[in-house]
Structure formats: C-alpha cells, structure tokens
Amino acid sequence: xxTSIIExxxxxxxxxxxxxxxxxxxxxxxxxxxxxxxxxxxxxxxQQSLVVDLSRHEVQNHSVEVGAExxxxxxxxxxxxxPNLFGPAHNCTSQESVQTNWGPQGPAIAxxxxxxxxxxxxxxxxxxxxxxxxxxxEEVIQCLNVNDGQPIWEHRIPTTFVCQAKxxxxxxxxxxxxxxFVFVLSAEGVLCCLxxxxxxxxxxxxxxxxxxxxQRAYGAGQGxxxxxxxxxxxxxxxxxxxxxxxxxxxxxxxLWSATQQDAGYSTPQPAHIHGQDYLFVLTYDGIVSxxxxxxxxxxxxxxxxxxxxxxxxxxxxxxxDIALFSSYGNGSICMRILPDGSYETLWExxxxxxxxxxxLICFDNHVYxxxxxxxxxxxxxxxxxxxxxxxxxxxxxxxxxxxxxELILFGEFGHLACLQLDSNACEIKSQTEESLxxxxxxxxxxxxxGGKLFLRNEKKLLCLDIAAKP
Length: 470
Prior knowledge:
Elements: E1 2-5, E2 43-44, E3 49-50, E4 60-61, E5 81-82, E6 93-94, E7 108-114, E8 123-125, E9 128-135, E10 138-145, E11 151-158, E12 176-177, E13 181-185, E14 190-195, E15 201-206, H1 207-211, E16 225-227, E17 230-233, E18 244-248, E19 254-258, E20 269-273, E21 276-282, E22 286-290, E23 297-302, E24 317-319, E25 322-327, E26 331-337, E27 343-349, E28 361-363, E29 366-371, E30 376-381, E31 387-392, E32 399-403, E33 406-410, E34 416-420, E35 427-431, E36 447-449, E37 452-456, E38 460-465
Parallel strand pairs: 6-32
Antiparallel strand pairs: 1-11, 2-3, 4-27, 5-8, 7-38, 8-9, 9-10, 10-11, 12-13, 13-14, 14-15, 16-17, 17-18, 18-19, 20-21, 21-22, 22-23, 24-25, 25-26, 26-27, 28-29, 29-30, 30-31, 32-33, 33-34, 34-35, 36-37, 37-38
C-alpha cells in the first residue's frame, strides 16, 4: 500500500471545464428482467415464535397502528457533508434546499473527470470528496476538492480480486468518514483507516487472515458504520463469533464481536427506540437485532436469499419504532420494535415492494422504492404493505436522495429524474431526455452536499450544480 499527496494543478488530469448537458433523446434497449421464486420458510425466534410463509401472494397484515414517537438515531450533524452511504442520517435524506426543475437537459455540470471501475458511492466531508475505484491491479482511494475536482491525495491497495459473475471486480463497499478518519473496505476484505487530511494509513484489518472471512462471488461489499467512538461492520468472520465486529475507530482495537453471521452487502443501521440504542444488521444469513454498545444480541432471524448468487444488500429502514427489511428472493418483513426489545410482525410479502439493492425511502408513513421483480417504482403503506401505486419507468433500478417532499432519482442507465412524493399518484416532475453517462450501468448511489450532486458510473464522476437559486 502507498499514499501520496497530490499537489494541485491548474487543470488536473481528466478535468473537464464546466458545461451544460446537451439535449437529446435516448433509446433504452433493454428488456425488463423478472424472476419468479416462491420460498416457504419456517423458523423460531428468540423472544417469540412465528411461522413465515412468503409464498402467499397477498400481504399478510398483522397490525396497522403506527408506534409512538421515537427519538432518531444519532447522526452526523454537519452542513455540506454526506459522510457515508445514504447520508448523515443513514436514510438517503438531505435537509438542503435544492433546485429540481432542471428540465430535459439536466442540471449544469460543475466539473467531471474519468475514474476507474467499481460500484462504491462517493462521500463528502465539507470541501473533500472521497471516491474509490479499481485501476489495473490496485484499488485507489482518491480525495478530491469538491469545488473543482482537483486531487488532494490518493491511497492505493494492491488487489487481485476477480468477480465470479459478470459484474465489476470492485470495489463495492462505500467508505465512511467522521471528519478525522476515512474507513475503507476493499473487495478482498481489507479494512483500512486513513487520515482524512493526508491519506496516511492509521490502522488496518485483514478479515481473511484475522477473522476467517471467505469471499463469495462478488467479494466484500458490506458498509462500515461509525457509531460514537466505534467502527462497526458485518465482517463475516468465521473464527469465533466475529460475524459482526466493533473496533475503536482511532486505534483499531477490537471492542466486541458477535454472531457467526456471514457478511451481507448492507450497512448496519443504528436506531434509538423507546429510550434504548439498537443496531439492526441484515447479513448474508439473516436479520440481527443487537446493542451497539456491547454487541449483545437481542434476536436473530434466519433469512438467507434463495436466489443463485443472491445477496442481502438492502440497508434496513427504521421509521419511529418500525423496522423494515427487504431481501432479494425472500421479500420484505415489517415489524414493530416493542419496549422490551422484542417485536411483533406487522406484515410480510414478496409481492408488495421488495428491493434488490436500491434504497427504500420512508416518508409520511409510506415507503417508496423500486420493486426488483419488474423494476417498477412503487409506493406502499408502511404499516400494512398495501400498494398505493406502481409505475414502470426508464429509470429501472434507480437509487435516490430524499429532499423535502421530493426524490431525486438516479436511473440504472444514467438518467436523472425528480419524483414528487405523493402516496396517491406517481408524478415525475422532471427527467433528463438522455443519459448523463455514455455507457455502462449506473449502480452507485448519489451523494448530495453543499448544493452539489455527485454521481458516478465505472468510467466517469460527475458533479452537478443543483443549489437552490435566490
């Protein structure tokens, strides 16, 4: 590994002067892929038992009341920052005021630059942007100036990883930062803590060597979570109970470890419910509820995806005392967390709204997202799972940022759109006529900070100006 500070240049390599997107039409030459899989499962839970039958086509509705108000999870409250996957509140939500009526040509491009491969999403801390990418036989972590894309430093990790499926060779995991450190997980399971200012390596952990992590088809893609002074991750260790681990974020000291759950592709989700701190983790093997302070496990639910090469890749949704989990092949389960730490199931379905990897957004007691079976945009009632509307669009498996009462959608083929959040109708108020990217899929999530929207595919990084105009 090596780190190098990059002196600013007047025009750094790959930098492109600001310009406006040209107007044009795009033809989507892709058939909609669907899957049909009707699993039947039965399992017992630690604090209550329940038989789950996901083969039923109708939503099984157990309760319809919304729980009492609950304090939100601890978040990073820093203006102009998007410090981890899905933003400072871990729910794709931004408090910024932005411009969304950009028309068919799209927003103005502040700057753009070529980058390497990977599905990792950009993150931002004030004036610094972190992006990871695969270049030849190295994973490159770059720190850029958010205002012009000029490089500040880079850190390189050697890699020989090759994906067993027809997708990228990584990296997959999105970094996280607290303004002092940057935490990065490579496709081969090497976790690095870097100094945000200069990229120096502070500590690292090789999950293969130290904890017995074994790679599957896509390599390591789970996201790190910064919680208070801890760095928590679903490491997937097989040596002892190291499936989920917490480190001292400053030193790398192991603080606690729990379960033998293999690593999924989601990020642990913190929550503060009924006056208690919780951590919900969707692993490769199932769902885990635990105490983030000491790693004590409240309960576990077996929930491995039955799909070939299937992965649990959707970060849990927490809304008050309601927790929603979604799994490609299994469907979705919605539950209410009770004051004693147990839960009651509200509904379960594989027909309502099930995500493959794209985030689910909860707003005003409704959930918005992309259903993986037909790639349709959908809105459902949170507590019942009832479908309010569905619509197929050119966006396909779109990722999203929630701003006010709107969703900024970044489509699978590079289109940008804005959806009005309305549980009664699907209203797309603006959408680009052509893709913002020339080719290759767009599987990474956006980052929004300081009025700038950062988008990437496996060839290009874009900075779009969507700041609200006076």
